[in-house]
Structures are given as structure tokens and as C-alpha cells.
Design goal:
The protein is of the alpha/beta class. 44% of the residues lie in helices and 18% in strands. It has three domains: 132 residues, Rossmann fold, CATH 3.40.50.1390; 154 residues, Putative Large Serine Recombinase, Chain B, Domain 2 (Hect, E3 ligase catalytic domain fold, Alpha-Beta Complex), CATH 3.90.1750; 240 residues, no CATH class.
Length: 570
């Protein structure tokens, strides 16, 4: 009988690599008189969902379009099928395949994947275990990266313009300069940044000098660099690129790397494998990991601060630079929250100036970005005055903060949440102990395998990986025990968080633009703009987003033509 086979691994350091999975699947096929007619392989892909695995989705499409050519889908084990965030998704895909007349068979599972009650229960349990393992592994990896970023090491990515990557051992002794595409060889090695090409270093220093001391604009700096054919950060021949651009100069001027800092966890991508095709979301500055003095700076902090002050002043006067990312210093508080219901484009902050009787007047407003870029054939020209939109949001939040019923409800929710967190810490400690026992058992098994003649080099690498995992688990356990021993006063902690709500009016009276934006995002999920009906739909969080607490949403409507907007809850 004919069959197809699916393999997946997240990294090349996993126990079950693609070649190992293939070998086991081929042995299973030979033992059961099956002929594999096609392979589908997802290498370096997470199993947390199906949509981000191209080979998996191609296999599903192949199954739907090939009804009679084969009968079985062979997989190494349940974890290779997927460690889905929602464990029920694993069953969903199997049921879909069964409706196409096929069966999924696991080569390395100790149960028969038939329709018996026992096999169904076993499979459900294994899917749950795979899902939980993925979540724990994600937490462990994040903590590991955070730890190394705090120590000043480079956590992934290429070197910034003007720098090179230096490989160091566990004692921070230099090993070698890493070229493009090279990576560290073992877990105990790390990567630090050192000054690179002298021309690149001098170019960075020159950009800061031109912008700060000679007061040149970004466009003028771009023209100077390109006229002298100075290589740009794109690392490609000048003839194949436009050379320096406004955005590349902008990022040099605003990158903390050049004053010797490491800034990690600044943003998150929905899909790390297709960064250019998926959105990038910036995290609140309170979540960033900043290590000062991580490496030798190219420019001094004084020059860097002057750049930020100069840029901030330009932003506050209404200027918005195209390459400025999310524009933290723009005076438009709701950018990133406003979405057009007609084209799903983002609304942008705009400003126009007109003169009347020799007096200058500025009009600040929001307008659909799709209309700005593509014109009236793509969307409607519906602009909304900046003050109307922002005042409605601010006044609504102020009403809530002064509502005793709302405050008491939030306090009750906080106390419940904190109680759950306290109990979860105790439960997680038990689970980590179980994982530590498993890791230690696997280390012992590998040591026994070495005595029986197993390849010592391969075994040593695996032991180092397991020891690194054990160290991360011990760090997590220590943190959980610290929290458990802290004996949190739940009511006091809830009151402390609620006191932060009282800062709202102070922030909007005296705070910086960045503080105002961050505060608004604690209360507002999004704002949908209907250019046809000329209405805005505000989605306010029922609970403010302090500490990442989830919440359902209320819906409010506002007509831009109303002189006095009204707040309506549906």
C-alpha cells in the first residue's frame, strides 16, 4: 500500500532531527509493507500552529487533491505532528484527513492509532503533553535569552553597521570573529559586539557630527554619503542599491547600539520566518531589556541624547518622518489604534497649515493611510479632527476612573487574578521538578551509552544542551520559589496596582507624549473608523491592561459631526 510521510523539527539540535525521523519512518514502512511515494519536510519550523508550516499545509492540499493514490500519512510521533497551542487542533487535522479517506500512523508511539477508546484517550493526553511542553519550552527559551541580553551578549541577529560579532568562550575569552552566516558552536559560547570596519565606524561618527554639530538635515546627510559612494548598511554593491536612504540614516541616529547598549525584547513578530510579510508589534518600553556598557561605543551618550532631543522637538511640532517606525514622539496619540473599516488600512496623523490675515493656523487630523498612498479609487477621503477623537477617549477613561462601581469591580478582578498567580507558582514548581528529573535521567542514559561505545563527540554536545536546559529550569524554579516565599498580600498588591490608575490625569496634564500613548493603550484595544457612515467605534477594555490581564470589550460610538460627542455602551 502507498503512503506519504511528514517530518518536522524546530532546530538542528533536537533529538529527533529530520534524518533520524526519516530513518524511523522508513523502518516502520518496511515492517508494515508500505511504500512512501512522497515526503513533506518542515525544517526549522515551530509546531505551535499549522499555518506557519509550508510543508504541512502543502501536504493537506495534496491529501485533498489526491483521493485514491495512497492510504496512510506516516509521522515520527505526536510531537512531530505538532505541539499546537490549542491541543484540539491536532485532532482537527487528523479528522479532516480521515474525511479524505486517509489515516495518520505514528512510527514511534507505543500505542496503535485505531478508533478504540483507549487509543483516542492516549492520543488526547499526548497532544496535551506536547502542547504544554511547547509552552514551557517557550518560557525557558525566553528566560535564557533575557539572561544573556542582561549580561550584554548579542542574542541572535547580524552585527549592526560599524560592528562585528566576536565569539567568546564561557570565560569571555575571545575565540574568533564570526563572518556572515557563521554561528557559535556550543551553548557555552557567546557573542559580543566589537568595532568593525574603520570606514564604517568613521561614517557613523560623521553622521552624528553632521546632524548634531553642523545641524544638517537627514536628506542633506543622505546626499553627502551617496555622492561620496560610501557603502551603506545594506552590504550590497552600490550599483545594485540606492545606497544610503533617509530611513538608514534615521536608524543609525536612533540605535542605542552605538553608545554601547544592548536593547532586547523591543518588538515581536507574528511570524519570525517571514518578517517582511507579517506585522511587527512594538512592546511597551517597560518590557525592554537594556544592558548599558555591553560593548565599546562608537559615539558618546551626550551626542546621542542631543539627537533624541532634536528629533523629539521636531515631532512635537507636528513633523512626522517616513522612516520613524511607530513615531513615538508624534503628537498623534491614537496612531496604531485607528483602523479603516472599508479598506482595513491604518489611519495616519496629518497636519495642514493655512494663513488668514497674515496669521498661521494649523489643523491636526487623522486620515486613512490607504487613501493617502493610493487615492480615492482605493478608499474614502474621510478625515477626523485630532482633538475630537482624542478628547472623547480621554474623557471616557476619566469617567471610568472616577466611577466607584468600576473601581470596585476591577479590584475584585485583580484579587482573583493575583490569587490564581500565587497558586500557579506552587503548581509550576512541581512540574519543573518533574522536568528536572527527566533531564537528569536523559543525561545518565547518555553517559551509559558512552560506556557502551556511543560517539563521544555527539554525546558531549547533547549533554551540554541538556545541562543548559537544566540550568534554565533551575533559574525558573528559584524565581518561582522566591515568589512563593514572598508571601504576597493580595489585597495590598491589588490596591498598589489600582493606585496607578490615579496617575492617569497627571500623565495627561504633565506627561510626555510617549507616556500618554502608553497610558491610552492600557485602556483602549482599538478604534474602527467607518468612512461611509462617518462614525468611529471605540473598543475599550473592561479591565485596564496592567500586567497583561485579559479583558472583553465594550463598544462606543461617536459621530465626528456631533459638537458634543456622546458615549453609548451596547
Amino acid at each position: 500500500m502507498m503512503a506519504i510521510a511528514y517530518c518536522r523539527c524546530s532546530t538542528d539540535m533536537q533529538e529527533a532531527s529530520i534524518p533520524e525521523q526519516k530513518k524511523s519512518i522508513e523502518e516502520y514502512a518496511s515492517k508494515n509493507d508500505l511504500t512512501i511515494i512522497r515526503w513533506f519536510e518542515d525544517e526549522g519550523r515551530s509546531g505551535r500552529n499549522a499555518e506557519e508550516r509550508p510543508a504541512f499545509m502543502s501536504m493537506i492540499e495534496y491529501i485533498r487533491n489526491s483521493p485514491n493514490t495512497f492510504k496512510y500519512v506516516l509521522v515520527y510521533d505526536v510531537s512531530r505532528w505538532g505541539r499546537f497551542e490549542n491541543p484540539k487542533e491536532a485532532t482537527y487535522w487528523e479528522v479532516m484527513i480521515e474525511k479524505c479517506g486517509k489515516k495518520v500512523k505514528y512510527a514511534k508511539e507505543d500505542y496503535v492509532n485505531d478508533e478504540s477508546a483507549g487509543s483516542i484517550i492516549t492520543k488526547v493526553v499526548k497532544n496535551l503533553e506536547a502542547s504544554e511542553y511547547s509552552k514551557k519550552l517557550s518560557l525557558v527559551s525566553f528566560r535564557g535569552h533575557r539572561h544573556y541580553a542582561e549580561l550584554g551578549y548579542q542574542v541572535g541577529g547580524s552585527a549592526k553597521y560599524g560592528y562585528k560579532r566576536l565569539l567568546v568562550d564561557e570565560h569571555s575569552n575571545p575565540v574568533k570573529i564570526l563572518e556572515a552566516g557563521e554561528h557559535k558552536a556550543t551553548k557555552t559560547q557567546h557573542v559580543k559586539l566589537v568595532k568593525g570596519d574603520p570606514l564604517e565606524v568613521a561614517t557613523v561618527q560623521r553622521i552624528f557630527d553632521l546632524y548634531v554639530n553642523k545641524n544638517y538635515g537627514i536628506s542633506k546627510i543622505v546626499d553627502i554619503l551617496n555622492s561620496e559612494n560610501i557603502p551603506s548598511p545594506r552590504k550590497k554593491p552600490q550599483a545594485l542599491t540606492k545606497g544610503w536612504s533617509k530611513s538608514s540614516v534615521w536608524y543609525v541616529l536612533h540605535d542605542e547600539t552605538y553608545i554601547g547598549w544592548i536593547v532586547w525584547n523591543r518588538n515581536v513578530y507574528r511570524n519570525i520566518h517571514e518578517k517582511d510579510k507579517e506585522w511587527k508589534r512594538y512592546k511597551p518600553q517597560t518590557e525592554w531589556i537594556v544592558c548599558k556598557g555591553a560593548h565599546e561605543p562608537i559615539v558618546n551618550e551626550e551626542a546621542f541624547k542631543k539627537v533624541q532631543l532634536k528629533t523629539k522637538q521636531a515631532f512635537q511640532s507636528g513633523f512626522k518622518f517616513k522612516g520613524a517606525g511607530r513615531g513615538y514622539y508624534t503628537p498623534y496619540l491614537l496612531t496604531g489604534l485607528l483602523k479603516c473599516m472599508k479598506c482595513r488600512g491604518n489611519y495616519q496623523g496629518k497636519a495642514t497649515v493655512h494663513y488668514e490675515k497674515e496669521k498661521e493656523y494649523k489643523y491636526y487630523y487623522y486620515l486613512c493611510g490607504t487613501y493617502v498612498m493610493k487615492g480615492k479609487h482605493a478608499c474614502r477621503s474621510f478625515n477626523i479632527e485630532k482633538g475630537v477623537l482624542e478628547d472623547f477617549a480621554i474623557n471616557n477613561i476619566k469617567q471610568r476612573i472616577h466611577d466607584p462601581f468600576w473601581i470596585n469591580r476591577i479590584k475584585d478582578n485583580l484579587e482573583k487574578k493575583l490569587d490564581i498567580v500565587s497558586r500557579e507558582s506552587n503548581r509550576n514548581t512541581t512540574e519543573i521538578d518533574r522536568e528536572l528529573k527527566d533531564v537528569q535521567s536523559r543525561i545518565s542514559n547518555i553517559l551509559e551509552a558512552i560506556e557502551r561505545g556511543f560517539d563521544k563527540d555527539i554525546a558531549t554536545d547533547r549533554i551540554q544542551d541538556l545541562k543548559a536546559k537544566r540550568d534554565r529550569l533551575l533559574d525558573i524554579k528559584a524565581e518561582l520559589q522566591r515568589r512563593a516565599n514572598a508571601d504576597i498580600d493580595i489585597k495590598s498588591a491589588a490596591s498598589s496596582i489600582l493606585n496607578r490608575l490615579k496617575q492617569f490625569e497627571n500623565v495627561f496634564n504633565k506627561g510626555e507624549i510617549t507616556e500618554k500613548k502608553e497610558m491610552l493603550r492600557r485602556f483602549i484595544l482599538k478604534i474602527d473608523v467607518d468612512p461611509m457612515e462617518k462614525k468611529c467605534y471605540y473598543y475599550f477594555l473592561k479591565s485596564p491592561n496592567f500586567g497583561g490581564m485579559g479583558a472583553r470589550n465594550n463598544l462606543a460610538t461617536l459621530s465626528s459631526k456631533d459638537a458634543l460627542p456622546t458615549f453609548v455602551i451596547r
